[in-house]
Design brief:
Elements: E1 12-19, H1 21-28, H2 39-53, E2 61-69, H3 74-87, E3 93-98, E4 104-109, E5 117-125, H4 128-142, E6 147-148, E7 151-157, E8 161-169, H5 181-193, H6 210-215, E9 260-263, E10 298-299
Antiparallel strand pairs: 1-5, 1-7, 2-8, 2-9, 3-4, 6-10, 7-8
C-alpha cells in the first residue's frame, strides 16, 4: 500500500480527460434505469451522503498509476481510454436521489454512443510537489461518491516516458478489479497506435448483475478504509471494472517499470480550509511486471477522493 506523497511523481506536462460536456448533458435527461444499485454501492453512497450532510468530508477514491514508454500519442491514448471506458458500464451509469422524501436511489445509464471524452492540457509542472498537490486536489473533487461522473483520467507527459494516473470513486472499482487496468489500457493503446481497435469485447457490466453480485462477492479488496461506511471494503458489486476473462497482452515489455495501483482515503475532516486538511492518504499495490498478468457533471450531492502513484509498502 502507498500514498500519493510517496509515489515518486515526476514533473512533466499534465493532461486530463473527463466526460465531455455533451456526454454530461445527455445524461441529465436520461430516463430511469430499472436496475437497482448493488447493495454495497447503495451503502457506500448513502453513507457518503450522511457524512456530507453532517458537515464532514471523507475522500473515498481508488486509482491506478503506471508508466508508458516515450512521449504518448495523446490522440491514440484518448481513443484507448474511451475504448476502455466502454468496456465497463458502471462508468457510464450513475444515481439520482428520487422519491417524495428525496431518499430513493435511481440509476441512469448513458448509452455507449453518447460517451465522449474531453481533453484538457493543464500545463507544465517542474516541481513534483506542486504536481502531487494538483493531482490530489483534482482527484478529491472529481472522484467523488456524490457526483457524476465520478472518475478522471490524467497523464504526465515527458520525452522519455508518460505516467498515467486514473482515479475512481469506490462505487466503481475495488482494489482487485483495478489491477487489470494497466494491462488492458496498454493493449488498447498499442492497438490504436497500430490503427486497429480492440474495444469489441463484451462489456463488464456490473449494473446488469447488481442483485446477484451483491450477494456473491468476488473477493476482498486490499485497500483499507476507503469507504466512509466503515464496513467491508470488498466492493463485490461495485467492481464495475471487473472484466470477463481477457486475452493476454502480447506486446513487448517497455523500458519503463510499472507504477502502482492506488487508493485514497482520509479520516473525517471538515470541508474548508485547505490548511486544515489532515487527510491520511493510503493507496495501492505495486505491480510486479509490465504488463501485469490478467487476473481470472450531473451532481446527486457531494464528497471527494484522490489518486496516487507508486512505491509499495506492506498492505
Amino acid at each position: 500500500m502507498t500514498d500519493i506523497q510517496r509515489c515518486e511523481v515526476r514533473p512533466g506536462r499534465l493532461v486530463e480527460w473527463t466526460f465531455s460536456p455533451a456526454s454530461v448533458a445527455a445524461a441529465a435527461d436520461l430516463p430511469e434505469d430499472s436496475r437497482p444499485p448493488a447493495y454495497i454501492q447503495e451503502s457506500h453512497i448513502r453513507t457518503a451522503r450522511s457524512v456530507r450532510d453532517g458537515g464532514l468530508f471523507v475522500p473515498t477514491w481508488l486509482g491506478t498509476a503506471f508508466d508508458m514508454p516515450g512521449r504518448a500519442d495523446l490522440d491514440a491514448l484518448q481513443e484507448a481510454l474511451r475504448d476502455w471506458t466502454l468496456r465497463h458500464e458502471t462508468l457510464r451509469s450513475g444515481f439520482r436521489w428520487s422519491g417524495a422524501a428525496g431518499d430513493e436511489m435511481r440509476r441512469f445509464t448513458l448509452d455507449a454512443d453518447a460517451v465522449s471524452l474531453h481533453r484538457t492540457v493543464v500545463g507544465d509542472f517542474t516541481d513534483p510537489d506542486d504536481l502531487v498537490r494538483r493531482l490530489q486536489d483534482r482527484f478529491d473533487v472529481t472522484a467523488d461518491a456524490l457526483r457524476w461522473p465520478n472518475f478522471i483520467y490524467t497523464a504526465v507527459v515527458r520525452d522519455d516516458s508518460t505516467s498515467v494516473y486514473m482515479a475512481f470513486d469506490h462505487s466503481n472499482v475495488d482494489a482487485q478489479s483495478i489491477h487489470r487496468i494497466p494491462a488492458e489500457l496498454h493493449e488498447l493503446y498499442t492497438a490504436r497506435l497500430a490503427g486497429t481497435s480492440r474495444s469489441r469485447r463484451r462489456p463488464a457490466a456490473t449494473s446488469t448483475s447488481a442483485r446477484s453480485s451483491a450477494r456473491t462477492p468476488t473477493g476482498s479488496t486490499t485497500a483499507t478504509r476507503s469507504s466512509p461506511a466503515g464496513g467491508s471494503s470488498s466492493a463485490a458489486a461495485t467492481a464495475g471494472c471487473r472484466t470477463s476473462p481477457s486475452t493476454s497482452v502480447s506486446t513487448p515489455r517497455p523500458a519503463c517499470p510499472p507504477r502502482s495501483c492506488c487508493a485514497r482515503s482520509s479520516p473525517t475532516r471538515t470541508r474548508p480550509p485547505r490548511s486544515r486538511r489532515t487527510a491520511a492518504r493510503t493507496a495501492g499495490v505495486r505491480s510486479a511486471s509490465w504488463p501485469p498478468p490478467p487476473s481470472s457533471s450531473t451532481t446527486s450531492a457531494d464528497i471527494r477522493s484522490t489518486a496516487p502513484s507508486c512505491r509499495s509498502t506492506p498492505g
